[in-house]
Amino acid sequence: MCGRLKFPHPKPLIAAKKVRRLNPRIARSSTAAVVLGGVLLLGNGACQSRGDAREAGPAQARELVEIFSWWSAPGEADALEALVATHQQRHPDARIFNAAAASGARAREWLEERLDRNEPPDIFQQYIHELRAAARHGSEKQVPLDDMFDRLGLRHVVFPELIDDVTRDGHVYAMPVNVHRENTLLYNRRLFAAHHLAVPKTLPEFLAACRKFKAEGVVPLATADQGWILRIMFNALAAGQMGGASYHDYFMGTRPIDIAPFREAIDLFAEVLENYVNADAGDDGFGWTNAAQALYDGDAAMMLHGDWAKGYLLQLGWSGESDFGVIAAPGSADLFLYGVDAFALARGARNEEGAREFLETVASPAGQVAFNRIKGSSPIRPDVPRDELDQLGRETLDHLEHAKIRMLVRSRPVWEEALVAFSRDHDRGKLLRAFLDAPPGA
User: Fold this and answer.
1) Inter-residue contact 344 to 173 (CB < 8 Å)
2) Which of 60, 105, 194, 277 is an S-S bond match for 56, by CB 3.0 to 4.6 Å?
């Protein structure tokens, strides 16, 4: 059947004693030309399965652009569909096939297998903070995009930090799609109004709000005890506690380590995690969408998470002007701590010409607006038509453009494992040792 992928219901929230179901809006039908659930939706509404595409004649098969993207949550999938629709406006005959659509949790593992077998998709998704760690693929697996960046003048309009982030050995190896701020506070406007609280801009204000919400029977902060989710919350709190400049210097390894401020950041994280988060954060299968749903349902007042949660909330039908807000995490307004999604052009792509055309759409102002106003992220370039973004999108892009410090997030598996362990044993000394034994600058 042609249609949207229907997302499974998340597990129940134990603390709320009710089943938290995804809003019906996320299962609405869609007509964009993208594969969901293993089906290719073409521009004229016809359907073609992945098997049909492979069995097509050589000329027909070459017309397909096979991408590999694991975006599937509400907001993510919608943003990809909007990007594909924009590409089809520019190239009406284009057909896009997302080979990862039906692979679920195995998407990234499957991509590794295909790259190792030299059977790549035309384009594959990357997290840029992992690009340098993915040296095993290097120039053997990805085609440099220097010529495209030069021809389109992207070096003059894309934020320079992003170009540095996708450059390795002097060559650009990926096309950034967006900029996600990770030191972000999302909050329920209605709960703040009902409890007569101002939105916290500083850490003392944040902790005061947490105490008041808890005293009045509202979970102050929604989260999930997964390593990467805890890492985002820890980073947001640490940036506020240490200050943007000190946080930057510590995680960039540009100064000798000063243990005292970092120990204070761990103490703050411990205070929040032990007193102010939802009781079911560690339940099996509980993830960031469940936490965002708690914010939407009014069961939690705030969430420290990446601003892709904004895209999720928008797809639930919430308004950024009346229902929820998105600001820099308290105390960290001078820092824009970001992650970047990108697409790489695979060496050996069957349809390199079509893939390059799609990457040009990704970089274009129209493609950037279409994707990022739904995804919850900011465009990679400040010269987009800002009146086509929503109010929160315009504000975040302005913060990105004028931030004193723009910094790509740093992450290591050992840190995330230590944060998960801390959520269970609350051993502050062990958490500190995990960071000291694997310092960011090493």
Assistant:
1) yes
2) 60
Nearest of 84, 69, 78, 170 to residue 124 by alpha carbon: 69
CA–chain centroid gap for 381, Å, is 17
Tokens 């949790």, located at residue: 105
Interatomic CA distance for residues 3 and 345, integer angstroms: 28
Query: What is the DSSP secondary structure assignment for residue 26, as one 8-state letter?
Result: G
Q: Which residue has the tokens 């659930």?
A: 37
Q: What are phi and psi of 408, to 5 degrees?
A: -70, 135
**Distance (Å) of CA 234 to CA 184, 204, 418, 419:** 12, 16, 12, 8
Q: Render 92-115 in DSSP notation, one character per residue.
A: TT-EEEETTTTTGGGHHHHHHHHH
Number of CB atoms found within 10 A of residue 44's CB: 8
**HSE of 266 in the Cβ direction (CA atoms, 13 Å)?**
21
* DSSP letters spanning 400-421: HHH-SEEEE----HHHHHHHHH
pLDDT in tens, 160-209: 999 999 998 899 999 999 999 999 999 999 999 999 999 999 999 999 99
Q: From CA 394, how far away is CA 346, in angstroms rounded?
A: 33
Write the DSSP symbol of residue 293: H
Q: How many CA atoms lie within 13 A of 230 on its CB side?
A: 28
Of 95, 103, 93, 98, give the one whose Cα is nearest residue 33: 95
What is the value of pTM for the model shown? 0.84
Six-digit token string for 417: 């494992």
Q: Is 192 helix (H, G, I), strand (E, B) or coil?
A: helix
Q: What are the structural domains, with CATH classification, of the chain? A: 31-178+342-380 (3.40.190.10), 181-338+401-437 (3.40.190.10)
Contact 20, 10 (CB under 8 A): yes
Q: Is 329 in contact with 309 (CB distance < 8 Å)?
A: no
Cα-flanking dihedrals φ and ψ of residue 389, to 5°?
A: -95, 155
Alpha-carbon gap, residue 276 to 287, rounded angstroms: 17
Question: Distance (Å, rounded) from C-alpha 342 to C-alpha 359?
Answer: 10
Instruction: Give the tens place of pLDDT for each residue, 119-170.
Output: 999 999 998 866 655 544 455 789 999 999 999 999 999 999 999 999 988 9
Task: Report the candidate in 394, 288, 378 with the shortest Cα–Cα distance to residue 340.
Answer: 378
